[in-house]
Amino acid sequence: MKRIEEIYWLRFYGCLAVFSYHFLDRLNQHVDNVYVDLARIPTVLGTPIFIFISIFLFSIRYGNEPPHGFLLKRLQYVMVPYVVYGLIYSLTSYVNLRRSGASVDLSSHLVEYLVYAGWHGYFLIIAMQFYAFYWLYARFDLERWLHPGPWLVIGSLTSIAYWGLTRHFDIEPPGYLLWIAPLGWIYLFFLAMLLVRHYPRLAPERLPDVPWVARLARPELLAAYVAGIVLFTLLGQLEYSSKETWVVPLFILFTLYAMTRLRRVPATPLVKIVNQYSFGIYLAHPMFFAMVDALQEYMGFSLPLYALLLIVLGMAGSIGLNRVANRVPGGGMLFGKTLYVPGLRQTAPSSVR
Description:
By secondary structure, the protein is mainly α. Helix content is 68%, strand content 0%. The longest helix has 30 residues, at 70-99.
């Protein structure tokens, strides 16, 4: 399959967005002002980008014929790291809570993390659901009833209604069960499937062949929508996460713009390196953030130094751990496999092609 340069850029952006979201969350505990809120706006697209990329690549690579063992392979690559990192984060949290004098039951704490997906790895549960949906959609030709065009509209309205109503009625099930429900993300599936159908015509010179994409992909439309978000931010009327009603149209406009403008922009070496370790960065960076927080308790870093340590140790530590894990047989399966990126030296022995 020909390299799709825009996906490298999107994955790079998504990885940095998730990293930055958690970084700003830490920073917000020390600095709470409108500038931090404004910085949060581009970070809310991180989780949706990863879901979109997965469905897009599976569909463009396999079409309606996912290979034998597709679901089992995805289950291994996604759910094994979910359990491994879920145990690490839950046990670390349990020890910290006990150390602070809180009365915590270990079994219920493990259930909170592993069953109720109460940690940032909830994304992996969402992804696995959509991998299964893609398999069903392809194998049983569900496009006959669920054509991605009209269903992108239906799915977008469904996702907006889901996030809006759950906010309005203050629905809060245990852990992140609210977040992993597919209704909040269904628009991403149909957006990916629709763009795969039109992909040969998404090049700038062929955009007039797809008028609705040409209209929605205009930079002035995206800029106007972002300006509205900034205005509501300045008025203090927005919450910032990927689980907000306003994120749905933002993601659609951003993705259409990016997929049509980055078509022939070669990924730089830095972009490719972040792509190669993106899964490991996503999984591990909060662990290194927690190490910086532990040091902060004893050493009392200044705020600029604290922020710098979060960035440097969070990124370098995550990449280093992923490199080491993928040099050990089976390590990539446990701690997240590196991505095969043409033109980069691969980490042996467990990188994925």
